[in-house]
Amino acid sequence: MFFTKELKVSNLTTKIAAVSCTLVIGPSMAFAAPAQECDVVIIGAGGAGISSAIALKEAGKQKVCLIEKMPFVGGATNLAATYFTVINTKEQQAAGKGQSIEKYLESKKKQNYPYDMDRLKEFSESSQEALDWVNKIGANITRPMSSYQMGTADGRSLGNALILAMKKKLDESGVVPMLSTKATKLVTKDGKITGVMTEGKDGEKLLKTNYVIVATGGYSSGQEVLKKFAPEWAGLPSTSAVGSTGDAVGLLEPLNAKFTHMDVLRLNPSVHSSNGQHYSLSAARAEGGIMVNAEGKRFCNDYFPDYTQLSKWMLAQPGGYAYIVIDDKAMQKSKRLQGFKAKGFFLEAPTIPELAKKMGVPEKNLVATVERYAGFVKNGKDEDFGRKHNLSLDFSMGPFYAVKTTP
């Protein structure tokens, strides 16, 4: 999105939250609702909004008003599954997983994906500072997973670790989020922002301010916004937060804000559905798991960085689904996977042939697939599909597990 004026607070806000502090311009309106004075209003208490609030308090802003339409904080960050994206940190270098920022950016260019390369470069260059900050506040993201991934030390869900640490820091800062409070309108007068109209449990309230941070950009759970900007993907299950319904669109469109890249979505190729709920099983691939189709065969680079393309390859398979297959070594590394195992998501067997029977795939094919892939891991090269990231699981430790997934 493009905004007209920035409120300079802290580079760390942009680096952690990837959100702009903005002065939004539009038509003026008058309200008689109860009012509250704020130095800054932040709309949305996900990872972006919380880190912005912390940075503003550290910059000396006293009246930071953080509002959240849901009855809890965290937003989509709560559901972040596996890894924190950073490049060439000292932790990765020490584990032999470093790569230059230049090499990383070049790899992204080759994907022919509509990245904002300037923002991606800034993001990459801030990797060490961002990682140091989240660990300073207690997130414990200390396990190098690849040349662009850091995971939690014990394999717990990334979002859980981040939001617990960030909420504690937010509480220490003195900012009390206004929960169950929805922003309904950005108010302006004479071409300048003057407030945010909200609706909460006690009715309407006007938050008077000259600055607003709109941290509600996610819309993958908002079917109407999806149909407008990315109709190709409308109707697919979402593993994002239920509150990610694209509120920023309704707030900013009346003010003639410029939206960019709204048609670019990143699909999740590892969604397991159970009892009407959708869960991201990407941790299984991140811990080295492979994807096989209904024939028990690999069909692509299981950890291709462009998850949308990976999802398209999966949809092209018989039935439009795939199984992620792992061994007990991967299971023991990840508390997230252990939690899903306890929920009954995984098929389990002491041998690969027995696992194939439970999956309903040809036993001979799955055995051959696993044995061939184990050889690639041993030699450090995937000769079939060129997988480079997380090429680590040799299936040497039973029992073995499989989980059915769709995009």
Automatic annotation (TrEMBL):
This is FAD-dependent oxidoreductase. The keyword Transmembrane helix does not apply. Its cofactor is FAD. Keywords: FAD, Flavoprotein, Oxidoreductase, Signal. Pfam families: FAD_binding_2. Residues 39-407 form the FAD-dependent oxidoreductase 2 FAD-binding domain. PANTHER family: FAD-DEPENDENT OXIDOREDUCTASE 2 FAD BINDING DOMAIN-CONTAINING PROTEIN, FUMARATE REDUCTASE. InterPro entries: FAD-dep_OxRdtase_2_FAD-bd, FAD-oxidoreductase_2, FAD/NAD-bd_sf, Succ_DH/fumarate_Rdtase_cat_sf. GO terms for molecular function: oxidoreductase activity. Residues 1-32 form the signal peptide. It comes from the Bacteria. It comes from Parasutterella muris.
